[in-house]
Amino acid sequence: MSEELSSPVQFEGLEIHDMASTDWVAVGKPGLFYKPARVDLDSGKFLGLFRFDAFAESGLHQHVDVGASYILSGSVTDYSGNFTQGCIGINPPGDTHDALSYDGALITSRLEGSSIYPPKAEELNAIHPGAYRHGFQNAGAMRDPIVVPYHYSGIEPSKGHPEGVTMRLLYDYAGTDHDFRMSSLHLDPGARTGPFTTQAGLDIFVVAGDLEIAGQSVKANQFVSAPSSAELEISSHFGCHLICWSEAPVISEGPDPFGF
Ligand SMILES: [Fe+2]
Fold first, then answer.
1. How far is the CA of 212 from the centre of ligand 1 (A)?
2. Whole-angstrom Cα distance, residue 51 to residue 61?
3. Which of 40, 105, 232, 247 is the S-S candidate for 45 at Cβ 3.0 to 4.6 Å?
4. What is the Å distance from ligand 1's center to 8 Cα?
5. How far is the CA of 133 from the centre of ligand 1 (A)?
6. How do beta strands 222-226 and 132-133 pair?
7. Which fold has domain 155-252?
8. Separation of 173 CA from ligand 1 center, angstroms?
9. CA angle 171-172-177, nearest 5°?
10. Full pLDDT tens readout for the chain, 260 residues
11. CATH number for the segment(s) 22-152
């Protein structure tokens, strides 16, 4: 079952999802919500926002597949530490944790699969769509060192990009089944990436500012998703900060704008 809950605007294969006009889905446990741009309740694949109100707790769960997230506001805490605004949150397959937010949190995420919760008789009200009850696999395994709070601004920008374009590779999906990249892209006012052609899916969340893509304007708190074979260029009139999830290298003259 696949659900499109946010009525995306479509333009030449691009889909724009406006989170300001998309309703929160209450997951049934106090203070936990998600807001989908794209969600599949069978597979747990998800693109969208998560919200923890203050003192909300996810409950102990194990990630079946990758979650790659960026903290937009507030904080969420687990045994690795305190993931605050501007931090990256990576959950590799098998990652097992219980996350609590002391002050509330808003998170933008792309999940490649769902999560499992310990077998219990009570109803499951999980933060991650498509979660189910099952015994954990290898729950005592050492946690992947990628699961630590790190701030995007602490990552050195990659070299060789056009003037005014600052790209930071946030996560390379190493050791997973996905050869994807998660990146942070800043465009100064008037900057452009140069033209490129996608070879697989590309998802972008506009954290701040204005984005121009294929003649479409996308603004803060909106997602834009492109399919394979899309001929695109990204630019900004007044500057923007983007979080991007790219499923394959793009074809371009210069360095890949999304971290490949
Ligand atoms: Fe989690």
1. 33
2. 17
3. 40
4. 27
5. 14
6. unpaired
7. Jelly Rolls (2.60.120)
8. 16
9. 120
10. 445 556 677 777 899 999 999 999 999 899 999 999 999 999 999 999 999 999 999 999 999 999 999 999 999 999 999 999 999 999 999 999 999 999 999 999 999 999 999 999 888 999 889 999 999 988 778 899 999 999 999 999 999 999 999 999 999 999 999 999 999 999 999 999 999 999 999 999 999 999 999 989 999 999 999 999 999 999 999 999 999 999 999 999 999 999 99
11. 2.60.120.10
Give the Å distance between the CA of 92 and the centre of ligand 1. 10
Same topology for domains 22-152 and 155-252, yes or no?
yes
pTM: 0.95
Dihedral of CA atoms 92, 44, 117, 143 in degrees, nearest 10, equals 0
Calculate how far, in angstroms, residue 188's C-alpha sits from the geometric centre of ligand 1: 33
Distance (angstroms) between ligand 1 centre and the Cα of 226 equals 26
Give the 3-state DSSP-derived string for the chain, with helices as H, strands as E and coil as C: CEECCCCCEEECCEEEEEHHHCCCEECCCCCEEEEEEEEECCCCCEEEEEEECCCCECCCEEECCCEEEEEEEEEEEECCEEEECCEEEEECCCCEECCECCCCEEEEEEECCCEEECCCCCCCCCCCCCCEECCCCCCCCCCCCCCCCEEHHHCCCCCCCCCCEEEEEEECCCCCCCCCEEEEEEECCCCECCCEECCCCEEEEEEEEEEEECCEEEECCEEEEECCCCEECEECCCCEEEEEEECCCCEECCCCCCCC
